[in-house]
Structure to design on (488 residues):
C-alpha cells in the first residue's frame, strides 16, 4: 500500500512537472477563452492558428498616482513594445466603436456608460491586431468587481497584474503643489511650486490650484482607488504583485520588467507547495521563508528551530542535539532528518504546503528526505559571498535584558550608551564558530545543489539584493504551485 501510494505520488509529480514545463494548462485556458470569444466556423483550424501564434504579454497596471502610472506604462512600452490602453481614453472615443450608438444614447442623456458596454469597447481594443502583435498594458482598470467579471468573461485574461505603491505623502507633495496660470488662455504651461515655479513674481502671485489637486481631493481619490482594489483583488490575486514605486523610476521599471519575465502561475492541479529555501549562515533565507509563509499561508518549517524546540522540551532527540547547538557544530544528519520528516508529515503541512528553511544542506540529507518519501519541488538557494556572510554573523549583538537584536554595522545612531555597553555576542556568532559554520555550508553546498539540479528544480538567487527584490524573485515559485491571494 505504501509503495503504491508513493508510486502514485511520483506519477502525479511527473505529470505536473510536464504540464508546468510546457505550460499546458495556461495554453488550454487561453485557447478556450479565445475560442469562446471568436466562435469561429472552423474551430479546429482556428485552434491550430492560435497554437502557432506568438502570444505577447498582457499587463494590468494600477496606481492612485497617475504620474507614476504613466511613467511606468511608458517604460513598458519602450522596453517591451506593449500598447498602452487607457480606459479613460477608450471611454472618450467609444462613440467611434461598434458599440458607439448605444454608448452615445447614454451620453446624450447624461448617464454613465454601463460597465458591460465599456468593457465591450475595451475588448475590441485589446483584441485588435496591434495589441495581439505587440501585447498590451491596461491602465487602472478594472475599478469594480463587475468590471473585472466582465473583463475576464470576455476573454481578456492578463498575464500579470502590478500595483505600484507610492507613499501617500509623496503623492501629496507632488500633486498639491501643482498650479496653473488663470491668465494663460491655452493652459499649456503647468507650474509646480518646488520643481518649476515661475520666475516672474507677478505670475507666481496669481497662480491657482485646480480643485482636483487639493489635498482633500487627492486623499479622496486614493481612498476610492484602494477601496476598488479590495473588491477587484480576489479575481486577479493569483497574478498580482505590489511593487514599491517610491524610488528611482528606472529601478522601478527594472523590477516590473523582472516580474514580466518570471514564470506565470500554473493552472495545473498539484499538491500544496513543497519548497526548500537555504543559504549560507547570515543570509536572508530565514526571514524570506517567514515572509513567504506569512503572505501565502504556507507553513514555515525551520530545521534549526526544530532542534531548539526539541532541546527546550528535553526530548530524547533534544538531549542528543543540545551539545551540537551550544557548540555551533552541525547536528548529525539522522538526528535532524528525523525531526524534519516528522514535521512535514503533519496535517497542516500536507494541507497548506511548506517552506523548509535551512535544510537540506548536503547531498546525503537530500537523499535521506527522498528515501523517506519527502518530495522537494523547488530548491531555492540564496547566494552570499563568504566575507558578507562572516560580516553579518560576527556583527550581530543581542541585548540580554530584553532580547532585542542589533548589528554593529547597522546600529541605529540613537542607541543609548548604557544599552551599547551591555550588548552581547551569541556564542554561535563568534568569529571561530562563524567560520566553522560557513565551512560546513561550503562543503555541503556543491553536492546538494547538484542533487536538485539533476531533478531540474534548483534555483539560485543573489543574496546581495534588497529583501524586497529577493522576495519578488521568490514569489513566482510559490504562486506556480498554489494560487493564493498575493494582494492584501
Amino acid at each position: 500500500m505504501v509503495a503504491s501510494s508513493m508510486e502514485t505520488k511520483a506519477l502525479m509529480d511527473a505529470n505536473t512537472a510536464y504540464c508546468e514545463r510546457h505550460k499546458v494548462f495556461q495554453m488550454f485556458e487561453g485557447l478556450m477563452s479565445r475560442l469562446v470569444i471568436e466562435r469561429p466556423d472552423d474551430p479546429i483550424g482556428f485552434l491550430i492558428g492560435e497554437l502557432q501564434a506568438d502570444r505577447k504579454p498582457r499587463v494590468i497596471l494600477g496606481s492612485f498616482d497617475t504620474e507614476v502610472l504613466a511613467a511606468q506604462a511608458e517604460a513598458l512600452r519602450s522596453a517591451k513594445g506593449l500598447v498602452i490602453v487607457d480606459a479613460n481614453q477608450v471611454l472618450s472615443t467609444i462613440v467611434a466603436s461598434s458599440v458607439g450608438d448605444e454608448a452615445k444614447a447614454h451620453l446624450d442623456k447624461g448617464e454613465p456608460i454601463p460597465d458591460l458596454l465599456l468593457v465591450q469597447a475595451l475588448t475590441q481594443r485589446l483584441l485588435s491586431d496591434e495589441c495581439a502583435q505587440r501585447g498590451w498594458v491596461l491602465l487602472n482598470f478594472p475599478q469594480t468587481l463587475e468590471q473585472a467579471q466582465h473583463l475576464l468573461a470576455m476573454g481578456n485574461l492578463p498575464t500579470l497584474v502590478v500595483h505600484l505603491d507610492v507613499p501617500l505623502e509623496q503623492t501629496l507633495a507632488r500633486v498639491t503643489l501643482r498650479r496653473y496660470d488663470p491668465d494663460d488662455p491655452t493652459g499649456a504651461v503647468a507650474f509646480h511650486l518646488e520643481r518649476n515655479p515661475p520666475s516672474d513674481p507677478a505670475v507666481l502671485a496669481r497662480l491657482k490650484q485646480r480643485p482636483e489637486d487639493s489635498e482633500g481631493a487627492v486623499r479622496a481619490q486614493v481612498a476610492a482607488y484602494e477601496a476598488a482594489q479590495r473588491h477587484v483583488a480576489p479575481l486577479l490575486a493569483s497574478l498580482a504583485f505590489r511593487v514599491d514605486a517610491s524610488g528611482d523610476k528606472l529601478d522601478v521599471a527594472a523590477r516590473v520588467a523582472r516580474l514580466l519575465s518570471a514564470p506565470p502561475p500554473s493552472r495545473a492541479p498539484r499538491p500544496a507547495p513543497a519548497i526548500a529555501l537555504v543559504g549560507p549562515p547570515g543570509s536572508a533565507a530565514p526571514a524570506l521563508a517567514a515572509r513567504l509563509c506569512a503572505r501565502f499561508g504556507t507553513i514555515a518549517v525551520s530545521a534549526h528551530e526544530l532542534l531548539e524546540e526539541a532541546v527546550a522540551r528535553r526530548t530524547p532527540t533534544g538531549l542528543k542535539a543540545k551539545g551540537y547547538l551550544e557548540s555551533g557544530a552541525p547536528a548529525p544528519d539522522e538526528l535532524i532528518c528525523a525531526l524534519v520528516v516528522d514535521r512535514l508529515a503533519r496535517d497542516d503541512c500536507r494541507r497548506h504546503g511548506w517552506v523548509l528553511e535551512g535544510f537540506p544542506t548536503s547531498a546525503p540529507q537530500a537523499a535521506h528526505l527522498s528515501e523517506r518519501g519527502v518530495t522537494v519541488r523547488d530548491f531555492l538557494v540564496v547566494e552570499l559571498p563568504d566575507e558578507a556572510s562572516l560580516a553579518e554573523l560576527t556583527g550581530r549583538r543581542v541585548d540580554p535584558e530584553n532580547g532585542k537584536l542589533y548589528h554593529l554595522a547597522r546600529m541605529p545612531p540613537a542607541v543609548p550608551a548604557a544599552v551599547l555597553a551591555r550588548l552581547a555576542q551569541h556564542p554561535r556568532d563568534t568569529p571561530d564558530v562563524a567560520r566553522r559554520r560557513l565551512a560546513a555550508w561550503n562543503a555541503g553546498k556543491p553536492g546538494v545543489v547538484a542533487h536538485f539540479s539533476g531533478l531540474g528544480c534548483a534555483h539560485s538567487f543573489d543574496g546581495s539584493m534588497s529583501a524586497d527584490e529577493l522576495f519578488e524573485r521568490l514569489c513566482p515559485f510559490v504562486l506556480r504551485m498554489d494560487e493564493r491571494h498575493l494582494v492584501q
